Structures are given as structure tokens and as C-alpha cells.
């Protein structure tokens, strides 16, 4: 039986978010990390939507605009209301109009074709040698070790197809890369809130395409778990709509 998947939507004030991140001692340039911390502060770790996707919406006439956050959770937004009421003073100022919306996704069925957009971090954890620590490496660079002629888009699309097919969740019909940057990320390593000393470069890849659901229950798990790593920092959310 498929798990219930709810799509959340909320907006954050950029200036309030920046001030919050500064108070938390977060790296100034990593907006995904700022949103991650804000969602945990607002809704708690157990209720915050994850994975999520953030976009900066600017008004047509100019101005600061807002950050729109879309995310998945196994429950509706009302489930987090009690935590919001007990959040630290001032946290509510992060929310635009103190408003959080959610709705359950439509029924999922095998064979259903959906168009998607995805911002992902295609990396794998590897060990350099026996007994060494694990490191994250760009899947394109890993693929070049065995196939020096492989093209970047080929490596990333192969990775995407494998992630969608995990546990027979979905089949990739077709996709393309619509954006690529390398982003340096600092994140806390443990419960003692220690930060990595050196920023680590990660690929940030935007995909767009069409998939076909194979197993609705596994696909629900994929939506809630996200595609790839760093789903708590703005990566891995499949934004879906009916395929044409």
C-alpha cells in the first residue's frame, strides 16, 4: 500500500532568513542550508517537509520578493501546528503571512506518466583505500575512471535513471540537463553542531523530463526520501505534473 504523500507550500522572508542564519552561525552563501535550518526551527525535525525545493520569487516591479518552498511530507501541514506554537520567539517572522499550505497528492498508479523537474546532487560515497574515510565524489568524475570518453550528461542521466529505478519505483522515459553549477557546501557533521572546516564542492544539476511509475508504493517512498543525497538541503525533490 502506498504511503500518503502531502505537498507543502510556504514562503519565507529573505531578510528574516538571512538574519536567522547569521544568528545560527550558518555559512552565509548556502541558502539551501538556511532553509533546512528554518524548516526544522519552525516545524521540528519530525514534521518538517523533506525533501524540499526553494525558488526566489521576485515581483515584476522589482523588490526583494520571497523564497517559495515546496516540499513533501507524509502528513499535512496541520500536524506541525503544535510545534509551531512552541517554537522560539521570533521564528514565526520567517513566514510570509504566517501561512503554510498543504494538500495530498493525487492517487498514484503503475504506468502513470508524469513530467518532472528535479534539482539534484549526483554524488556517491567512496573509499580511497582500505580503512580510509568515505568521501563524496561527483558521479561524472567517477565514471571517467572506467570510461574516459563518457560525456557529462551521459553520466548524470545514467545516475538519474538508476535512482528512479531503485526498488522498481519508476522508469525514466527521457530527460535533459537544464542547468549545472558547482556549489561549495559547508554542513554540520554531527550532533555537536561542528562544521566541516573546508567547503566541499558538489555538483548541482537541474533535470527536466518524463518518468513512468512502476510501483506506486516504491514511488511514494522515493518522493518522501528524495532523489540522491543532501535532500535536507534543497536537493532531490521531484516536482511533478501530468505528462503531455
From TrEMBL:
Q: Which SUPFAM superfamilies match?
A: CRISPR-associated protein
InterPro entries documented for this protein = CRISPR-assoc_prot_Cse3
Q: Which Pfam families match?
A: CRISPR_assoc
Annotated Gene3D superfamilies? Crispr-associated protein, domain 2 (3.30.70.1210)
Superkingdom per UniProt: Bacteria
**Protein name per the record:** Putative CRISPR-associated protein, Cse3 family
